[in-house]
Design goal:
Layout: H1 7-12, H2 22-30, H3 54-58, H4 61-76, H5 84-104, H6 109-142, H7 150-156, H8 165-174, H9 181-197, H10 203-212, H11 219-230, H12 235-248, H13 254-269, H14 274-290, H15 294-309, H16 312-315, H17 317-330, H18 336-354, H19 360-377, H20 384-405, H21 410-451
Amino acid sequence: MSPSYTPIQMQTRSLPIPPSSMKVRVFQLVCCQTLPCPALPVSFPKAASPLLDVRVIVGDEGRLQACVEAFERAVAAEAFTPWKCLDWFSKEYLTKVVKVSVALGFSQLELVHSLALLLSTYCSYLGHTFTHKVIIPFFEKSLSLPKHNTAVALADGHTQITTPVLPIYIAGVLACFAKDEKMLVEYLRSITVELALSFAPLDSIKAAVLELKREKRFHQLILNMLQQLAGHPSFQVRSYTALLYGSVVSGVDDKLLKTCVVPQLKKLASDSDMNVRINTIPSFGTIMEAVTNKDVLVRVHEQFEQLVANEACYSDHRVLMALVSTLARIGPNSDPVFRDEFIIPRLAQVAIENDNAINETRRRDVASALLDAYKNISESFISLELLTSYMLPGLHGLLKDMQAVDRDRVPTVQQLIRNCQSKVDEYRFQKNTSASVESVDSKSSKFLSKLMPNFETSPSKLKWSLKKKSFPLSP
């Protein structure tokens, strides 16, 4: 005779269930009878299907709220012991998530976002108490730094803090609950300072900021944190902060750009340390590439003009390389006015002046950056005046550099020159053709006006003017 089971016991004997209904299992194990309904409503992520909706599965809103409250109390108890399925999630599953995150790297940011979203879903279903009691301690242990040679390990990227595990933890766990925003900002600020002081790679913090920036509610929090870091006594922290501003630009509304981003970047651009000033250049370039507000573009354009007006822009190799590399990156997508009035003329100026560089290594570095810039910008629309006044002279100057320092790239520069020259010839041919057509039309009009004075040659009034004549009828 087969044993009889209650409905709840029957469900506990089933196979492991999908993540979306994991909390339902928790509710069923904790609650064997209807409990008092809590005052606050329960919030869950939107289910992909009604069949996976917790409210549909439980069937009663009051019972669902009571189950959530009971689970929170059970997890918060000191004697709480997870069962096998939940223990597997806490140990094996999260360990696999970390291993996958490390293997991803930062070339697949969409996959990083998917993992962060997955963790956020788990945290939402399992609740605030479980997240703080199990999930956060697990990641804190995984992201802990070695006790010895911490700075060396960070600088070499041999810790999980410099991997995608950090942005997945920050965006997927710490950002899940609104009540944890203060904890989120404190952790993000402290980890940024720690990485900066150790001269560690900035990729993990950048990825974390990009993930948080997807939600508008975090924009002001991130900018407030960066404003605090901009006044940090360490030049390295301020330098990292200048770079991080570039990660915030896209997607932030114009008001925050005007009041929080541009003023702070201009302040950092006048910092006493040269490294800080240099790191503002890529962020200013990102603004010219991603922003359409005219007031912001004008202010940043003025900032670039001030930069090139300073002699250090051409005498300091680091400043010059940062400028040329930034112009190479933003050239095709930057504001057309900025491209025509600043980028193309400045590239020509740098190319011509680089011919006189004494240090061969620096000359090669600048020439390589210029080649990248010209390759990127050559696909954009460039007027005849800019082609003849700046593009071709700049490319001829670059050709001299390549012939002296890197002959393998000479054919590439020569091809760019031929392409620009063909555009010039095409412009001139079209101009001459248009002038010839206008001349022919003018002569034809004059001829017709002499031949037929009553014929109106204006395009808007083209018509024949004929006088009617009466002819006598034959008898």
